[in-house]
Amino acid sequence: MTEHLTHVTHPLVQHKLTLMRKSDTSTAVFRQLLREISQLLAYEVTRELPLTTEAIETPMQTMDAPVLAGKKLALVSILRAGNGLLDGVLELIPSARVGFVGLYRDEKTLKPVQYYFKVPTALEDRLVIAVDPMLATGNSSVAAIDLLKKAGATNIRFLCLLAAPEGIARMKEAHPDVPIVTAAVDERLNEHGYIVPGLGDAGDRMFGTK
Ligand code: URA
């Protein structure tokens, strides 16, 4: 991917996102929409994966047919909201390896605090797709990418649902080599670090914890 930011404007993505934003959308419907939208976003984030060919036999004849090249890619969920995106992406790429980065946001400082880190082996040989629905201040995304690079990853993409201009700028400054794919770029962050107009707390909405 050459662009630092890819805004997925596909009408199905935009329609589903609007339904997710509505405050009267139930937890069950929110989760279902997230699953659907994450498959559409996965299609975009993997658009330029390298291909090779494999000799196969169709019922008619043999042919050299395209298959994905290289090692299985790694999906890394930034807990806990990342898991909502992860499920849908995994449905599309079932053989992907999966990692988790546990970061929570200190509500006073808005800084990320690490509590868990477990990722697949040979990260340096894989495309790594880090997933987190909300790119808000960018603090946790930058910290998660820092950890992934420390673990050896060199080819990383960041997949989210909503991004704030502040988070995009922070990521671009800290990790200009990591392309971002998002369904929307919203107006701004509010004083609590939430994206507006946004959709609220993504974790609470998908897990029904509020
Ligand atoms: N995390 C969320 O879940 N929502 C926001 O608006 C910002 C960060």
Describe this structure in words.
The chain has a seven-stranded mixed sheet, sandwiched between helices. The chain has a three-stranded parallel sheet with strand order 8-10-12. The protein has a two-stranded antiparallel sheet with strand order 2-3. The protein has 210 residues and is an alpha/beta fold. It has a single domain (5-207), classed as 3-Layer(aba) Sandwich (Rossmann fold). It has helices at 11-21, 27-45, 82-92, 139-150, 165-174, 202-207, and strands at 5-7, 51-57, 62-68, 74-79, 97-105, 112-118, 127-131, 134-135, 155-159, 162-163, 180-182, 184-185, 188-189, 195-196. The protein is globular. The protein starts with a strand and ends with a helix. The chain contains six helices and 14 strands. β13 and β14 form a beta hairpin. The mean pLDDT is 95. The longest helix has 19 residues, at 27-45. Residues 81, 134, 136, 194-195, 198, 201-203 line the site of uracil.
Name a few traits of the molecule.
about 210 residues; alpha/beta; Rossmann fold; 7-stranded mixed sheet; 3-stranded parallel sheet; 14 strands; about 35% helix; about 30% strand; binds uracil
